[in-house]
């Protein structure tokens, strides 16, 4: 039975730069005939989605995006690194402690490959559905909506609910990351100030940080955030390079640590690593704003290049951090560095500034979801958006101030949101997107592969959530006692 195609619900906005899409979100795909563009009717759209007619050239809505401020490949790579090199990388030694040296190392490589593959699936499905619906770009939630809307008949009524579910997960995950980033910066700056002999409270530092955060998050264009992403990436790599000076000194033999840890702590390892791979929420916004979107998923493109750097850094920090500090590895590698050493304080400063600069990119994603929903009720929408941004930054300030043990709560949010957004939803969307082509050669193997990834992500979701809840309620003492855990 052919899939039923409906007009895409336009109430949910595209996850695009708010001032960046000039060709309109409601534009239909066109067919080029004798130099003229003829809009595809509903009947033709059904036919072209299932059996593309190569005799008549179709205008590719993805390749013909008209962006006012497109990002270059280098811009996108900096954002990609910035979106993944957050606080999670500092927790990798603690993650390896919960898995063992070799299980942690090879497990991180395997999970990095799987997460990168799922990112590819998400972008490829977005391109396919953009062409199917004649849209220049789609957000994560709209990709989920279109996949169900053009999928099996039984799935079509669930399309709107699925879109709302994805948006909810994205908002919870990204605002949770913003809260962790905020508190992480404050804690590290407090330690630095105490080293300099200045004693201030966390709340005071949070208050001082509020001013630059508000100013930075008034920037609405992803293109204009490139300098902050470049700064964050350079500082993070510099901080990690200095940290390696400590990690690589006087390394013990690999037999001094466990090669395989207890099965009971593997869910904590899974949750920490999945929290570290936090870039799934920014993949489509970055691709949607590229001047050359085809370069994003090429074999040597931005996605593979960025994720290769990220996975190598994660594996190296986890491997050498756990080998150096063993069972004394704390939730953040900066906590294991000597407090009386100037270079150790420099690492804390560099990482604090890098995380502070990364806040704006993580903040960008929920704003593109929430802003159209809220501002449509106001006459002066730009002013309403600025007020909304201010209120949302204040919300993260309040949460960071009243929940000092936010790390434990975020571990639960990460287990629930990141595992589903990074491992469960992309292969599920791919299955639904490929449903009209179920008779293609090799399709059963693709379905089996996607099903195995979904099962893996679902197991991580259930076991990671259960272990996080057990930790929160005191079943596992001493894990993630403060924000240093992330």
Automatic annotation (TrEMBL):
Its source organism is Anopheles farauti
Superkingdom of origin organism: Eukaryota
Q: Where is the Amino acid transporter transmembrane domain?
A: 69-468
Is the keyword Zinc-finger in the record?
no
* Pfam families registered for this protein in UniProt: Aa_trans
Membrane topology of the entry: Multi-pass membrane protein
Subcellular location as annotated: Membrane
User: What's the protein called, per UniProt?
Assistant: Amino acid transporter transmembrane domain-containing protein
Identify one Gene Ontology CC term for this UniProt entry. vacuolar membrane
